[in-house]
2-isopropylmalate synthase (Dyella dinghuensis), 535 residues
Amino acid sequence: MNPETVNPTDHAEGGDSAEDRVRIFDTTLRDGEQAPGFSMDRRAKLCMAQALETLGVDVLEAGFPQASPDDFAAVDEIARTLRNTTVCALARCQNGDIDTAARALERAHHARIHLFLSTSPLHREHKLGMSKSQVLETAVASIERARKYSADVEFSAEDALRTEPDFLVEVFSAAIAAGATTLNAPDTVGYTTPAEMVELFTYLRKHVRDAHKAVFSAHCHDDLGMAVANSLAAVSAGARQVECTINGIGERAGNAALEEIVMALKVRAPHFGLRTNIDTRKLYPTSRLLTQVTGQAVPRNKAVVGENAFAHESGIHQHGMLKHRGTYEIMRPQDVGIAETTLVLGKHSGRHALRQRLETLGHTFDEAAMEGIFKRFKTLADRKRDIRDEDLEALALGQDPDAIGPWRIDQLNTTSHLGGSASATVKLCHEDGREIGEAAIGDGPVDAVLRAIERATGTDMVLKRFQVRAMSEGGDAQGHAQLTARHAQRDWNGSSVSTDIIEATAHAALAIVNRIERQVSDGPGAARTAQGVSA
Ligand SMILES: CC(=O)SCCNC(=O)CCNC(=O)[C@H](O)C(C)(C)COP(=O)(O)OP(=O)(O)OC[C@H]1O[C@@H](n2cnc3c(N)ncnc32)[C@H](O)[C@@H]1OP(=O)(O)O
Ligand SMILES: CC(C)C(=O)C(=O)O
Ligand SMILES: [Mg+2]
């Protein structure tokens, strides 16, 4: 670390005017990781840190080195690895914390020490047992100590939004005089409204002594669902750094979601007149990576990166989208790294989207035939949540998509050995009267069952995707098995539900075999029949 560097946060800024750029301070690996269920080990943190640097975050808060040896090692490793992003470590206003943070950042290319101390009456009295003057003195002494290690020091007045504004001005003025280069006013408990945010940041920028020497920052929590709105309000009142996390993870209800802030600034650029350094096409991949390393999925309806963010099921919207995508989308999926908009077929869909999908699958119908298919489609969609391409093909070919057979399972046994292979035996019955028993061994019981079914039915399948999801909690939870397998140069899907996940997997695999067999026996002829009614 170099304590002499001037304006270290802006090391990558070149000739840019700081005025129209909002710095993105990512705290996924500190505040995000702090929440129950989101702990990340060193490897996961390093992997995320590299993705965040590629995303283009300006500052990356890598951890709280005093918290644990692993957190220290993670900050150290990230600091050594990242080249362009400023790596930041959190520290209480205590000498031990500051020295530890500085040690963890020793090998950073660009380093920031982030100090925090509560300033609100509630925290002063009940948590810290400190008077106003003790808070002031402690903050100043700590900033001065941190400045000996780094020219880039951020000071956060914890619970700033519940602090007396004149005291906050006093603390921030003293913090600038002591050498702090970024001043953060966190809404630690997510209590504030956007209007209050504007009021406070305007007040601070007007009254803090030498305010121009520091960057003002917002750090908002989502307890009342206003973290993003509050961050944007702060920015509109002059904050030029926002602290946020991927997918909005963080303490309690989380922090402001990075992807939402960045896309709001981009999509509404004429309104805000501000920009960030983020490569927005990396937002979705980074969000996905986080869900993988933490095992915590985002809700389908999550803004920007949720599965439904660019998916449309309702007929009226699908019709609008087919005419002009601007009717129901305010940003392009590609701009956030999602391949394309999807028109999901379900019980809310209409004829336009159904016809379009069928045409993509190679089936063209005249109006009268389409009416019949549409009726059957609606009946099916009332029963089934996911309508897949195979279901549509079955409808197009005049088959019953829910038909079972020709194969069914009569017997199924599996055995597995700890650390060894597994074996499966199946007995399958065909509607033509055949009864076939087969056995196979595999890497695990699922693999063994799939091999046994392949042998018994004589159908080659290359497994491409296998997912088992619990549909409820507890020992008797239903498992939903979903398989995708490759056969004859196309993908086939099968799914099934059972309290026994091996059984669910076997039924899902057999559903694929049955679909393939039905398609082969009815396929070309039926396809011709279906095409035959087209205009
Ligand atoms: C708003 C935020 O997100 S703040 C960051 C919160 N993150 C974390 O707490 C995660 C990491 N924390 C930890 O691993 C542990 O809390 C540690 C290692 C830092 C400290 O552990 P312990 O020494 O056992 O203290 P403990 O956590 O029980 O209590 C906090 C202590 O820090 C003090 N403290 C709290 N904030 C500050 C601060 N900003 N500056 C100085 N002291 C502080 C408290 O008064 C209390 O002091 P005491 O031990 O003298 O009573
Ligand atoms: C450490 C500070 C910035 C914090 O996380 C908060 O106040 O929410
Ligand atoms: Mg926080």
Observations:
- Residues 4-9, 11-17, 523-535 have pLDDT under 50 and may be disordered.
- The CA atoms of residues 157 and 335 lie 35 Å apart.
- DSSP finds 18 helices and 16 strands in the chain.
